[in-house]
Amino acid sequence: MAVVGTLPARATPANKKGFEKFFGPHLPAKLDTCATCHVRAEANGAKSLDEFPHNTFGKALHAAAGRIDARLAALLDADSDGDGLSNRDEILTGSAPGTPTQQGQVADPTLLSQKREAFAAWHDRYPWKPFDPVKRPAVPEVGADWARNEIDVFLAAEHAARGLAPRPEAPPETWLRRVTLDLTGLAPTPD
């Protein structure tokens, strides 16, 4: 069970919210609970995070931040209960990792493959690393003639990825109306 418990430490705050943010929309609703990672041998579960030796939060997390990424990748790919599925795959399919009573059988291998690809794309879009300096992302290569600056290029790339086409440029009176509504919340007067 300690395998998944280290994931929230990398994701965001050291709590259930971090686990939710790490998996985002790919976290099954039934696993959206602290008990996915923090379960004692007793039926009533953990009473505090201090009971788990794998928690490296606060100053300890800061000290471990440089070493933790490779270890977390290995933990995600590990099979903690020996059922043939990695911990990441078990979470994506909706079963709790580390539960040896469950069999590592996937009803639809293509669905699991699609979930893996979707999760990888979602997770790689922005790696949250609070102790690393922020790096400027590479500007995408798109053939958008309407793009006037780098922000427009990023918007054009997302439009292309979603199959959207930009709308034509608005005439000055429409633009003025939109700006006035945005800035004041009121429709412009004829003056």
Overall number of strands = 0
Distance between the termini: 68 Å
Total number of helices = 8
Task: Give the helix proportion (percent range).
Answer: 40-55%
Helix/strand order:
HHHHHHHH
Structural class by sheet pairing and helices: mainly alpha
Unreliably modeled segments: 1-13
Biggest β-sheet: count, sense, barrel?
none
How many domains would you count in the coordinates?
2
**Shape estimate:** elongated
Determine the mean pLDDT: 73
CA radius of gyration: 23 Å
* Beta-strand content bin: under 5%
- Assembly status: single chain
Mind sketching the topology for me?
Layout: H1 2-5, H2 7-11, H3 16-23, H4 59-77, H5 87-93, H6 109-124, H7 150-162, H8 172-184
Question: What does this protein structure show overall?
Answer:
It is a single chain. The chain has 191 residues and is mainly α. The chain folds into 2 domains: 123 residues, no CATH class; 56 residues, no CATH class. The protein is built from 8 helices and no strands. The N and C termini lie far apart (68 Å). The N terminus is likely disordered.
